[in-house]
Amino acid sequence: xxxxxxxxxxxxxxxxxxxxxxxxxxxxxxxxxxxxxxxxxxxxxxxxxxxxxxxxxxxxxxxxxxxxxxxxxxxxxxxxxxxxxxxxxxxxxxxxxxxxxxxxxxxxxxxxxxxxxxxxxxxxxxxxxxxxxxxxxxxxxxxxxxxxxxxxxxxxxxxxxxxxxxxxxxxxxxxxxxxxxxxxxxxxxxxxxxxxxxxxxxxxxxxxxxxxxxxxxxxxxxxxxxxxxxxxxxxxxxxxxxxxxxxxxxxxxxxxxxxxxxxxxxxxxxxxxxxxxxxxxxxxxxxxxxxxxxxxxxxxxxxxxxxxxxxxxxxxxxxxxxxxxxxxxxxxxxxxxxxxxxxxxxxxxxxxxxxxxxxxxxxxxxxxxxxxxxxxxxxxxxxxxxxxxxxxxxxxxxxxxxxxxxxxxx
Length: 410
Prior knowledge:
Number of domains: 3
Strand content: 15-25%
Largest sheet: 7 strands, mixed
Shape: globular
Helix content: 25-40%
GO molecular function, one term: methyltransferase activity
Protein name: Methyltransferase domain-containing protein
InterPro entries: Methyltransf_12, SAM-dependent_MTases_sf
Organism: Falsiroseomonas stagni DSM 19981
Radius of gyration: 22 Å
Keywords: Methyltransferase, Transferase
C-alpha cells in the first residue's frame, strides 16, 4: 500500500533506517523480553475470562510488528506452554522484518508467519480472521487512527479481542515541546541519520529548564539508541490520548475497553483515601474514574488496553476447578519476601502505594504454581475454611488489579 501522504512516506523511511525498537537477534539466547499487551496469560484472562480452552488454536496478528518484541514473546509463550496456533507478523518495514525473522530463527520458533504490508489494508488483505490482535505503539502514528482501529476490528474473529498501546499526554510532558524545537532545526525532509545527529546535538545543549530534562519517566532518547531517540523526538507524526479520547476512539470502531493495564493505576481510590472524596468518586462512571486517576497521577506516558467487541467474559474466581497463575512471579519466593506488616509495596513510575495482603497470603502464594486448581490449594492449608475463603478473595482483590494474579486457560 503506497504512503498516504508525505508524512506517511517519512514514517516509512524512518522505520527502514531505524527499526524500532533497536534489537540484536543474538540477545535472544540470553533473555525473553516480556511486556504488555499480548502476554499470553493476560490474553487468556482479560480477553477470554479464562474460559477459552488452552487446546483451542489461537490465531494471533501483530499489526505493526516492528522488530518483533510482541511477536517473539507471544510465539515463545505459546511454544513453551505447548499451545497450538500461529502468530502473524505484519509491518511495512523490510528491515524490521529482517530483524524479527532473525530473532525467531535464533529461538527456533516455527509458529510465526511474516507478512509485509500496512494494517490499513487489512480489510482487503485476505488475512484473518484473528482471535487476538496486537497493535502496540502504532495507532498514534497513523494518518487516521480511527481508520486503523476499524481496519483491525474488520478482521477480528467473533469473541476475540485486541491489545493496544497508545501514548498518553501527561507522562510525556516535555516531549512535544522538544519535537517542536527539532522540527525547526532538523526538518522532516532531511535524511533520518542527519536528523538524529542534529537532535543529539540539541539534547546536549538543552537548558536545564526544559521539561523533558525534568521528566523521569521518559528515557527512550537516553536508553533506546538512535531508533529510540528518533521515535521519541523526531517522529514526524504522533499524538497522545487521554482516557476519554481513547474511549472515543475505541467506541468509534464498535469496540469497548475490557481492561486498562494495570487496573489499579486507573482506580482513583488507590490515590484518594479521604472518605468524602471517595464518596464523590463513587458517582463517576468507569471512564470518568480512570480519567480522574490519569489526571491526578500525571505520570502515565502510555495507555495499555484490552478491547473486545462485546462485553468480555469475567474470570470466575469462585470456581474451585479454576487454576490461578502468577504472571511473571514465583509464588514461594514472593511468600518468603512478604513483610511482617502484611503490606506489599508497589511502584508505578515513581508513585508508590502499599497494598494490604491477607494473613494467609504466604500460604496461598506458596501453593500457586499455574498448575494446581483452587480446590487442591485450599484443601492443603491448615486453617478454618471460612478464613481461607475470605483470605483467598482478599488476595484476588489485591493482586488481580495489579495484573499479577490471573486465571489460567482451562
